[in-house]
Amino acid sequence: MARIKIFDTTLRDGEQSPGVSLDVREKREIARQLARLGVDVIEAGFPIASEGDFQAVREIAAASSDENPNVVVAGLARAARGDVERAAAAIERASRPRIHTFIATSSIHMEKKLKLAPEQVVDRAVEAVRLAKSFVDDVEFSAEDAGRSDPAFLAEIVTAAIDAGATVVNVPDTVGYMTPWEYGELVRGLFDAVPALAHVDVSTHCHDDLGLAVANSLAGVRAGATQVECTLNGIGERAGNASLEEIVMALETRKDVWGHELGIDTRELYRTSRMVALMTGMVVPPNKAVVGDNAFSHEAGIHQDGVLKAVETYEIMSAETVGRDAGVLVMGKHSGRAAFRRTLADLGYGELEAEKVNALFRQFKDLCDRKASVTSDDIRALVDAETTRVPETYRLQHVQFQSGTGVTPVATVRVATDTGVHEQAALGDGPVDAAFQAIERITQVPLALESFELRSVGHGKDALGEVTVRVRSEDRVVHARGLSTDVVEAAAKAYVEVLNKLAAGLGRDRTGDDATAVSAP
Ligand code: KIV
Ligand code: ZN
Predict the structure, then answer these.
(1) Is 315 helix (H, G, I), strand (E, B) or coil?
(2) Is residue 394 helix, strand or coil?
(3) Residue ranges of the domains in the chain?
(4) Yes or no: domain 2-280 corresponds to CATH 3.10.180.10
(5) Residue 373, helix vs strand vs coil
(6) Which atom of ligand 1 is nearest to the CA of 241?
(7) ∠ at Cα 488 (484, 493), nearest 5°?
């Protein structure tokens, strides 16, 4: 029974998703949760891409050696001296550092992008692996666009990379072009052509342009791959990467077919997915497998009837296995602090500090006044909001608005700062726009709203509304979130949270620092 290693690249390939920008603090928080989830490798970033990426990889590497010494921390590098040296410096404090170096191997990439002959590409790969090996023992080599590469050339470069010291060989379907049987054949053919592959880990890395990333990754595992590269919620370049939660649950649920072992604590999947969605601002569609809101709901009468009689009629895995429950009623108005603390522990938040628990308890009591029943999903949402909260330079005290058919929407907002309490009113295209304009009048900070998402936490007319915004302020991009049973208030809270993050120096500076600024080596 082979042990399949899960290589998470949410913080690197996932962060390359359009519109995503995580700051160092958020990346550290996600890395900590990934370790709790039990991933084998965290690809923490692309250190040459920006100073922010370098710092994030460095901090994650240092923290992992204290907190999770068994997890491998990888830094990405093109097959070029400067990249490899930068990656080496970023991961040097990890207890298990890995340099992941790559170069494209398809004719289309070699001719059009790299403008190099195949022999030159092999030389560069070998030099990069050798250089990486002078810094660390664990070196991964990726043949970018392997899916469209000549299999014979792929075998040649992989052999050379292993001779130079590569310990992991990755076979990316960079453009998500392959079918599962083609990808499986590619991996199987490589094993046949390169006997040395039996002594290293062979990895899959599949993109989802045709919706086949998970199927292709599993075909790779079937052909002998022992590492799968994936991201939470499947985020990543263009249509994204293979989704971690789907790969893991496919391997776990159908162990009878696969027979592989994983090191993942599946009960942490939902929590990790939520954290990634909140911090990246990439909302999970309701029908998303494993982690979507509807993944365990049964709507049709015939299904409900079946599930009530025997749950296995329509459920192939239980919600609890992935760390969710049915959003059940957990607490009521009369529940005390001790019961609240116990509920937090039951939901997996046993490690929260007393101060946070007190703040959460106050919010829980407020919620009980507004909502007939408080569910586990509500409590999770409160904890997520509290965990990402920053010092309150601006405190939203009050929002009032008037809107309706044939009425120009107007909002009045009151915000407290160190200089006192400020109130402003503004008109807008809708009540949310009016509230945002009033906040901008008070703070005088120019903000450009890039995205706005509204989701309901659980069901019912009195459900909590969760607003996620992405806002640009000059060159900084910030994500924030607000929660309330009143969606305009939730939106105002999210906007004020943006201002607090900016005041705390958070958010990501996008001035020419993203991976798109890095071209081929
Ligand atoms: O998709 C890809 O080829 C990559 C490599 C850098 C591994 O992300
Ligand atoms: Zn990729």
Answers:
(1) coil
(2) coil
(3) 2-280, 301-387, 395-508
(4) no
(5) coil
(6) 1
(7) 60
Range among 90-104, 355-369, 472-486 with highest mean pLDDT value: 90-104
C-alpha 181/C-alpha 455 separation (Å) is 38
Top CATH class of 395-508 equals alpha beta
The letter for the amino acid at 66 is: D
Closest to 495 in 3D by CA, of 471, 466, 461, 476? 471
Q: Please tell me the number of the ligand nearest to residue 171's CA.
A: 1
Angle at the Cα of 254 from the Cα atoms of 248 and 260, rounded to 5 degrees: 65
Ligand 1 atom at minimum distance from 172 CA: 3
**CA distance linking residue 202 with residue 183, whole number of Å:** 13
Ligand 1, residue 174: give the atom nearest the CA. 1
Nearest CA to ligand 1 atom 8: 13
pTM of the model: 0.87
Left if phi > 0, otherwise alpha if psi is -120 to 50, otherwise beta: which for 224? Answer: left
DSSP helix/strand/coil, 254? coil
* Mean pLDDT confidence for 232-242: 96
> 102 in ligand 1 pocket by Cβ < 6 Å?
yes
Amino acid letter, residue 490? A
Contact call for residues 97 and 84 (beta carbons, < 8 A) = no
The two three-digit tokens of residue 131, written as one number: 């250089």
pLDDT at site 72: 98
Confidence of residue 514 (pLDDT cuts 50, 70, 90): very low
